Amino acid sequence: MDWREEYRDQGFVVVENVLPHDLIDAHIVDVAALLRKYGVFDAAALSALPMAVDDELMVAVLDLHQEGEAARGLIFNRIIGSLLRQLFEAEPSLAFARSALWGPGDMRAHVDTAFRSPEPPYGVCRTWCALEDIHPESGRFYLLPGSHRSLAPKLCGEVLAERPDLMALYEQMVLQPQSCDAKSWMRLHNRAWPFVSAKVADRIEEAEKVAFQLNKGDIVFFNPSIAHGAFSCADASLTRKMMLCEWTANGASDFALSPEALRSCVRLPLRREDNLVDIGPRIAARAAR
Ligand SMILES: O=C(O)CCC(=O)C(=O)O
Predict the structure, then answer these.
(1) CA–centroid distance, residue 272 to ligand 1 (Å)
(2) What is the pTM of this model?
(3) CA 192 vs CA 18, 55, 91, 102, 147: distances in Å
(4) For the structural domain made of 3-146+208-251, what CATH number should be given?
(5) Would you list the domain boundaries of the chain?
């Protein structure tokens, strides 16, 4: 099967042994040095940071991924670029990249985006990169295969049915596409996504969660509409070194966002028609009942 078929069906593919270990090691040195500046030597110190300092650190982490030589070498890896180009059928652009040395703790299942088509051509993809051999007890990343197709569109439809304000936005985009632009799409996404994501954890079974043994340099390419999260960490002394990137298809290359935009994680404009889930038939069927 073409790997893109697998990505379409399952919502992810795991690609082994992509990132060179020497670059990973250099990047980890940079990340650890930055964390040290904030007095962070372990997971406990990180979670004890006051919120304002934590926000400042996150900005510094995003900056490191924009400027750091090792970070850029990892992010703009030739294999990653080639796979994203095949997925997007367009040039990929980085929306943001960040790394972490410890797991986030028990992270409930959620989706990172809503109202994007689960079918190609894709508008967005995330890459979860293992920066060490991930210990099984360190809070492994999990996904629910196929949920970008079976669950996410259903939840989008439910949220629209429950929220007339969001339904009005959606209908305007579908019925009057000429009056809408990428900003309309972002408005719908930004307002609706928290409601969609909040529904995920109650609608899945524990047994559906799938995690992989990931080794240093392996990457999971995943559709951010797939339900995913992280298991809790069984041993606080364990690290879980990873880098997460979000990529969009928009024809621009390299870092298209200004640092200011990166800081607020503003995404680049997307072509509306490529990214809307067609849930019109679902809505019509509901109205007919
Ligand atoms: O850190 C992880 O393993 C999960 C990351 C994640 O789910 C997210 O950033 O949305």
Answers:
(1) 26
(2) 0.86
(3) 35, 24, 28, 30, 18
(4) 2.60.120.620
(5) 3-146+208-251, 152-203+258-289
- Which pLDDT does position 169 carry in this prediction? 84
Residue identifier of the C-alpha nearest atom 3 of ligand 1: 141
Whether 192 shows a pLDDT value over 70: the answer reads: yes
**pLDDT (tens digit, 9 = 90+) per residue, 62-113?**
999 999 999 999 999 988 888 888 888 888 889 999 999 999 988 999 999 8
Residue 157 has pLDDT above 80, yes or no: yes
The CA-atom distances, in angstroms, between 266 and each of 107, 186, 259, 260 are 23, 10, 10, 9
52: Cβ contacts below 8 Å, ≥ 6 apart: none
Name the more confident of 286 and 15.
15
Calculate the alpha carbon distances from 145 to 32, 151, 222 in Å. 33, 10, 10
Please give the average per-residue pLDDT across 241-247, as a whole number.
97
* Strand pairing category for 12-15 and 228-230: unpaired
Query: For ligand 1, is residue 157 a contact (CB within 6 Å)?
Result: no
What span, in angstroms and rounded, lies between the C-alpha atoms of 268 and 149? 24
- Cβ–ligand 1 contact at 104 (below 6 Å): yes
Which residues have a Cβ under 8 Å from the Cβ of 288 and sit 6 or more positions away?
Answer: none
